C-alpha cells in the first residue's frame, strides 16, 4: 500500500511504499523522511484536486489579463476599453484570492 513520506528538510512529499533514497528536491538522505500519519495523509489527498483547480484558475486569470490588455490596446471606444479595464481588475482579485487560499492550504499541511 502506498504511503506518504515528508522530507523534514524541505517538506517535499513522496508517495510510495518506502521513502526515497534521496530527496528529489534537496538531496537529503532517506533517514530525513518522516511517514505522514493517516490524518495528515488524508489532508494531502483531499486537497490535491482543489490545489490543482486553484492553480488552473490562476493561469486562466493570466489569460484574461492578457486578452483585456489586447482589448484596451485596440481602443475601440470608451465603454469597450472600460469593460476590459474592469475585467482585468476583477480577475486580479480572483487570482489573489486563490493564491491566498493555496497559501492557507500549505500552512495547514494540505499540499
Ligand atoms: Zn528535501
Cα end-to-end separation: 20 Å
Run of helices and strands: EEEHH
* Mean of pLDDT: 95
Number of domains: 2
Strand order of the largest sheet: 2-1-3
Strand content: 5-15%
The total of helices stands at 2
The total count of strands amounts to 3
Gyration radius, to the nearest Å?
20 Å
Helix-strand category = mainly alpha
Largest sheet: 3 strands, antiparallel
Bound molecules: zinc ion
Determine the oligomeric state from the structure: single chain
Q: Which of globular, elongated, flat, extended, rod-shaped describes the shape?
A: elongated
Helix content: 55-70%
Low-pLDDT regions: none
Kindly describe this structure.
- The model has no long low-confidence stretch (mean pLDDT 95).
- The radius of gyration is 20 Å and the shape is elongated.
- Helix 1 (38-74) packs antiparallel against helix 2 (78-107).
- The protein is mainly alpha-helical.
- The protein folds into two domains: 1-36, Rubrerythrin, domain 2; 48-111.
- The chain contains two helices and three strands.
- Strands 2-1-3 form a three-stranded antiparallel β-sheet, with no helix packed on it.
- Zinc ion (ZN) binds next to loops.
Task: Outline the fold blueprint.
Elements: E1 3-7, E2 13-16, E3 33-35, H1 38-74, H2 78-107
Antiparallel strand pairs: 1-2, 1-3
Helix pairs in contact: 1-2
Bound molecules: zinc ion.
Amino acid at each position: 500500500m502506498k504511503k506518504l513520506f515528508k522530507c523534514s528538510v524541505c517538506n517535499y512529499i513522496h508517495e510510495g511504499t518506502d521513502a526515497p533514497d534521496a530527496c528529489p528536491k534537496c538531496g537529503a538522505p532517506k533517514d530525513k523522511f518522516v511517514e505522514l500519519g493517516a490524518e495528515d495523509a488524508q489532508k494531502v489527498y483531499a486537497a490535491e484536486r482543489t490545489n490543482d483547480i486553484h492553480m488552473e484558475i490562476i493561469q486562466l486569470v493570466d489569460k484574461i489579463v492578457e486578452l483585456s490588455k489586447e482589448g484596451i490596446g485596440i481602443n475601440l471606444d470608451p465603454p469597450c476599453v472600460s469593460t476590459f479595464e474592469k475585467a482585468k481588475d476583477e480577475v486580479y482579485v480572483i487570482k489573489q484570492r486563490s493564491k491566498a487560499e493555496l497559501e492557507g492550504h500549505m500552512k495547514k499541511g494540505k499540499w
